[in-house]
Amino acid sequence: AFGGYPTCCTHCRGPDGPHTHDCSSKNPTLKPPCERGCGRPRYGNFKTCCTHCRGPEGPHAGDCAEKARQQAEAAAPAAAA
Fold first, then answer.
1. Burial tier of 65 (Cβ tally within 10 Å: 0-12, 13-18, 19+)
2. For a pLDDT cut of 70, what percent of the chain falls above it?
3. How far apart, in whole angstroms, are the C-alpha atoms of residue 67 and residue 44?
4. Fewest CB within 10 angstroms: 15, 31, 33, 63, which?
């Protein structure tokens, strides 16, 4: 969490964002954002959140939102420490 906030940054509304422009650099436990600008975290060692992503409007793979949510939950305990 960031400061007194229960989320990663002051703009965060969940794994899909929005996030502040410097969120990923200030929260190293979080994955960098998808290079296609959708706001979701990158998956694994890939540069995008999923194989279907083409940008903010999607499309996304059927399990992309769930994987982003799981990554955010996994990072939450580490960010709070």
1. middle
2. 75
3. 10
4. 63
